[in-house]
Amino acid sequence: MSNRDSGVAARRKGAAAAVGRGIGMASVAAMLATAPLPQVAHAQTYSFSNVAIQGNQRIEPNSIASIAGIPQGQAVGAATLNDAYQRLVNSGLFRSVEIEPQGGTLVIRVEEYPTINRINIEGNDRLSDDELRPLVESTPRRVYNPTQAEADAAAITNAYQQAGRVAASVSPRIIERSDNRVDLVFEVAEGGVSEIERVSFVGNRAYSDRRLRGVLETKQAGLLRQIIQRDTFVSDRIGYDRQLLTDFYNSRGYADFRITNVSSEFARDRGAFFIQFNIEEGQQFDFGQITASSDLAEVNAQEFLNVARTRAGSTYTPTAIERDVARMERLAIQKGLNFVRVEPQISRNERTLTLDVNYRLTRGPRVFVERIDIEGNQTTLDRVVRRQFRTVEGDPFNPRQIRQAAERIRALNYFSNVDVETSQGSAEDQVVVDVNVEEQPTGSLSFGASYSLENGPGLSVSFSERNFLGRGQTLAFSYNTGTDSADSSITFIEPYFLGRDLRYRFSAFYNTTDNDAADYDTEILGFSTGFEFPISENGRLGLTYRLAEAEISDVSEDTSPIIQAEEGSKVTSSLGYELSYDTRVTGLNPNAGVLLEFGQTYAGVGGDNEYIETRALASAQTRVYNEEVTLRATIEGGAIHMLDGDSRVTDRYFLSSRQMRGFGSKGLGPRDLEAENEDALGGNVYAVARFEAEFPIGVPEEYGITGGVFADAGSVWSLDNTSGANGVEVDDDFHLRSVVGVSLFWTTPIGPLRFNFSKALQKETYDEEEQFAITISTRF
Question: Rounded to whole angstroms, how far apart are CA atoms 362 and 684?
């Protein structure tokens, strides 16, 4: 035990002595009263015809006699009297107990514990009464129990330790009231926050301390230590960090990685902890030969091997093996082969540093799932948890599928704790799956103010509930207003429509622009709805219908004739689809990911517009230089092909500063230079390529600051109508723009901020350059 732990234990022991001083004195009195009993036990026995109860106020005499359990009219000895005494003391009802034989009468004198009048918590500031009261099991109008009061004090102390205040102490005190009542007060000394001054590693060669610290949930204290709570020491978090570190190394081929020790030392002079992980990385392994074998006549091993995706020469990762096992077991189910189990057998080749994998197909035990019991969900409906299981009652029991279901339940992020265990069912071939969850808040309401170089100052309010009415649905509302614009929307998402992996989405929106300095105003009102479902392991297909009315009004005489011709209101009714392929989460390579998207929209299902819009995006990310540097690349584009009439300014593309850095909103593309205000007209086609690198710049990582460089190239072009003012044709040809710059990334509690400093290398004379911008960073 450390010195700190010894001090806390001493304080608690002193508190317990103070609370139960009367108990100790009563016990001595009782022992004195019963001291002759051992002598009597050798010489004689007793027989009582009557039991007299004295000193009781609330508890009935018959109840006390029943607890003592002394038989009347039967011979009893000292051992029996001592057992009766212990039962009365252990009942927790009495401050003191005395047992005294008086001839044929057994006299039992008791002093009852007082009744709790009320319970108060004093001295707490960092944790509110609402947070601490649920931890207290002592109850007003119930008998005061000093043992329970100590347990309650320990629970409150633990809550402070979880909040990083390991020096906190809680002392239970009682205040005497009339009628044998007491007020129970928990006096809290919160102490200061015990921050984590340094997290270090010993034995790491492949990865730097900086990279490994990025893996852990525990963070060092930094510039925002008063806001970021993860820099406080929480002992329970260490176990989670051990698992995160192990998974990190295993997924990168280090099959022999192990943590030999984790030490945490408290420096009293600095009021902070120093945590050190002692690790052994071992060698990095690749996959060797991948084979399959079967002991079952009805199973063709080669057929099962064909569904495996692991290939020789790739970096070893347990995730690849787990997914191959899942594919093979799914194939067995499709072929009607129940209880077929796939056991990966790994053979080590130290000379080549490879691991050979043989998938052995065997017959598993004939065990079925009897039922799935779900407990602890107060708001969330059972079906929300149950649908995360691919197994239902009566199905063959598969431990791997149960583990995967537990991970899916945790991934919902509805629960702070999820325990999934199995127990014996009503028969030897039956198991019960027990799911115990602890719910956590899933809603958020936020208010904020912002400033944009594009739209000026603005206000925003948003509400989001990810588990609406406990049904696993999402309901979100947002309203954002700037100097000359206002956007509002409401969104509803049902992730399991009709109980299937079919995501339904409905969104309504209302957007306006109204600026005294603008040449025209716009108003767009509409809704969209659609479904999204998986079509492969990493692929999804979305189908969408959209109906919107866009109005262009208050067009100035000084604006472009092109926009003047577009004034009025038009309704667009469209159907669309989007295919996506995403390996960012489910990919086997932990350092790289790819996102591919392709979609088309046909407008002309009623309404006033008829066109086909095509969109495409390809994005990739990878880490290099021992994962210290992150490289990202994105190429995207879109095209509108009008089938009837001309496109309008509300339909065409305008590149934002997120899509093309270094230029303002509506800062590039076709522009009517003959118009007085040189209006940006947008284009029917756009294409952009973005490249960037993010890397450490020597600032301690606890400050959350990194640097980056970027280069963008792209353009917007093509109009259906190019008749400018005074008969001058508007130039809508393709003109390449390019820009380079540096970035500063800063991870803050309000979100990841990004500061961009840019310089345009290629631009047109009429383009509007933006050399500095602050945005909320969007990561790959």
Answer: 60
671 shares a domain with 600: yes
CA distances to 1, 248, 316, 317, 710 from 630, rounded to whole Å, are 44, 17, 22, 21, 12
DSSP conformation letters of 169-237: EEEEEEEEETTTEEEEEEEEE-----EEEEEEEES--SS-HHHHHTTSS-----TTTTT-GGGB--HHH
pLDDT tens readout for residues 463-505: 999 999 999 999 999 998 877 778 999 999 999 998 888 999 9
Of 682, 356, 338, the C-alpha closest to 522 is 682
Residues 290 and 382 in one domain: no
| Pair 129, 41 in one domain | no
What pTM was estimated for this model as a whole? 0.70
- CA dist 194 and 266 (Å) reads 8
Region of 608 (left: φ > 0; alpha: ψ -120 to 50; beta: rest) is alpha
Is 68 within the bounds of a domain? Answer: yes
416 within a domain of the structure (yes/no): yes
**Sheet-wide strand order for 368-375:** 368-375, 430-439, 415-424
What is the mean predicted confidence (pLDDT) over 243-269? 88
pLDDT, average across residues 99-109: 86
Burial 416-451 (b: 16+ CB within 10 A, else e): eebebeeeebeeeeebbbebebebeebeeeeeeeee
Q: How many helices (H) and strands (E) does the chain have?
A: 14, 33
Q: How many CA atoms lie within 13 A of 240 on its CB side?
A: 10
504 and 650: one domain? Answer: yes
Cβ(51)–Cβ(73) under 8 Å?
no
Residues 676 and 578 in one domain: yes
Q: Are residues 178 and 214 in the same domain?
A: no
Residue 742 inside a domain? The answer is: yes
Q: Where are the beta strands (DSSP E) in 696-750?
A: 705-717, 737-748
| Count of structural domains within the chain | 6
Q: Retrieve residue 436's tokens.
A: 């115990």
**Do 634 and 523 lie in a common domain?**
yes
**What b/e string do you get for 387-411 counting C-beta neighbours within 10 Å, with b at 16 or more?**
bbbebeeeebbbeebbebbbeebbe
CA angle at residue 762 from 761 to 766, to 5 degrees? Answer: 120
Residue with tokens 């390529």: 689
Residue 359, domain CATH? 3.10.20.310
Residue 761 and residue 651 share a domain: yes
> Distance from first CA to last CA of the chain, Å, rounded?
46
Contact 270, 198 (CB under 8 A): no
**Are the beta carbons of 263 and 276 closer than 8 angstroms?**
yes
Which of 112, 138, 156 is the endpoint of a domain?
Answer: 112
Count of beta carbons in the 10 Å neighbourhood of residue 729: 9
The CA–CA distances, whole Å, from 200 to 212, 273, 279 equal 9, 11, 11
Q: Which domain holds residue 252?
A: 195-280
**Residue 74, pLDDT score:** 82
